[in-house]
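Q: I'm a student working through a structural biology exercise. My instructor gave each of us a protein and asked us to get a predicted structure, then write a short paragraph describing it. Mine is Synaptic vesicle glycoprotein 2A. I'm not confident about reading structure output yet, so if you can add a plain explanation after the tokens, that would really help. Here is the sequence I was given:
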Amino acid sequence: MEDGYQNKTAFIKGAKDIAKEVKRQAAKKVGRGVDKMTDEYSKRSYARFEENDDDDYPVVPGGQDGGYYRGDSQAANDEEGGHSDSTEGHDEDDEIYEGEYQGIPRADSSKAADGLAGGDGQQFRDMAQFEGERRKDQEELAQQYETILQECGHGKFQWTLYFVLGLALMADGVEIFVVGFVLPSAEKDMCLSEESKGMLGLIVYLGMMVGAFVWGGLADRIGRRQSLLICLSINSVFSFFSSFVQGYSTFLLCRLLSGVGIGGSIPIVFSYYSEFLAQEKRGEHLSWLCMFWMIGGIYASAMAWAIIPHYGWSFQMGSAYQFHSWRVFVLVCAFPSVAAIASLTTMPESPRFFLENGKHDEGWMILKQVHDTNMRAKGHPEKVFSVTTIKTVKQMDELVDMGGDISTLRRYKLKLTSLFHQVRSNFLAIFNPEYRRTTFMMMAVWFTMSFSYYGLTVWFPDMIKYIQKQEYASRTKFFTKERVEHVTFNFTLENQVHRQGQYFNDKFINLKMKSMVFEDSVFEECYFEDITSSRSFFRNCTFIATLFYNTDLFQNRIINSKLVNSTFLHNKEGCLLDFTDDNNAYMIYFVSFLGTLAVLPGNIVSALLMDKIGRLRMLAGSSVISCVSCFFLSFGSTESGMIALLCLFGGISIASWNALDVLTVELYPSDKRTTAFGFLNALCKLAAVLGISIFQSFVGITKAVPILFAAGALAAGSFLALKLPETRGQVLQ
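A: Happy to help. First, here is the predicted structure for Synaptic vesicle glycoprotein 2A. I'll explain a few features afterward.
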């Protein structure tokens, strides 16, 4: 028996030598896939030897499920000191020693080698047949992957990943609110016109639209974790820069690129997390993850409330560089993204992504890490990960000539071109007949939901500001034909209209003018010093022998007026912060805080019921109730009434958003998941831009049109949602 064992060892070494020679010869012709082909040659040589000496050297069976798990006999053999072929002996050429990890043996390696590589004259299989085999592999992988996740359990690893990805989702929630909160201050600091303010308000959505599409497509090709790290890094860098740049155009560019970065977070985060969740946990825990978007909104509101009104938190260098408190707020809003990057570096890539791309060993190691982490946390460190082999999906390698004389730039160009074509092909695949109906239905649901939700959530604060403005205007005091002589004004003048007045030898010193209007009035031998004004104007007035010293009453403040022997000295340069909206700013932050906090009950209900009543019922039911709630908007004629309706609508509609996120993750296979999610999320941002633009145009004109638009869109979305397939209880494709 000992002599037979020595003969067997000698034969294996000889087979390896032959395989190496074949490898060197084949490398000149085939290039890629050589490792698979030579491994197959070695295995076949070993198999022939086993067939000849089957009586002397019996082969131990692999166990259950066709060799996917360790069998009892194999485990016993391991305990006795035996070793597998993957760690046997010492090869002098390859420097492989006994006990060294060389990869997990694959049950389907022979099929992959035959299908993807060959010798002289061998051709690639028919593409249709290849795609059919890939689909079969994906189905087998999906079933086995679900079984493996059941064995790994749900525990410490998933909860750690939950908080890490939650920070990324929180950064997305913060990004939505940043520009809206800083706009009242930034418009004065950067002298913004109405058109510029409108563009600044929409630029973030445009950036997020581009980012969702780009990063969603890349995440299916280069990995979820790597794509998320890149997009969060871009967001952090340009958020940081945007807090320091002074010009409007550079600030606009920074916020655009910041939006492009954070735009990839939602499609990647949900896809990434779903691939670590078993089917009975998926709907619930993806819904719990949605709470971090709410936390991001609360964080942004609280920071704005605490920072922006403190105008003392600022400094300036001459008149060229100013750093006001709203810039501190922008800087603070980058913290969630930075924290997400730091945390994400400790987490592994999605094992499902590796297995879908033929990287068996990497996927196996991560799943083992998940299993061991959870078992140790549950007090069962002795439990062993029983999986030895996992199904992988066949890959179509592209034979690209990367000769030694090719330049580095050319090589990178070829790689980028190949990546572009892969992403483009993956995007077009979601419109193939197999997914076409689902994609168009999902496009309609995403568009209608986003159009109504974002349109109304921006319309509500605008309506509240309009009501505040109307109430403020109702308290305006009017003065007509008054004559004031030798009076010194050194106190705040606010919300007054003076018509046909006469002011002689009066002094206006160190004061603020808020919403002051002087019409058809005469100022003679008057003196204005250290004046700060907001929404204050002099129309059709006459100034005779009047001196203006260190004021901002120039050009745009004095309209169609006559200046006779009057002088302006040391005018205040640039745009100043508007001090009139202190209370109004607090109200905006408070309303946003309440509106964001109001979604908490909806988040809790959707998380608890998602796996019980199903995704479609949750989506359609929440949309119908939101549709009905829209008609209550006609009764919102007061500030408190509009705030209450905002909270009601947000709390109801969040359940439909959670269901839509879960449904999108589960309707598409793993190799197209983030591509489809990114495209649908990009469409969502486009619908948001349209909704915001249309709804804002009706502020102060009519409530009927926004109500009908929102209710109609939600009704259509709920009807179409019922036509989608239910995914509850299904394995992740």
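A: Here are two points you could use in your paragraph. Residues 433-474 form the longest helix (42 residues). The chain is about 60% helix and 10% strand. It's a good idea to check both against the output above yourself.
Q: Great, thank you!
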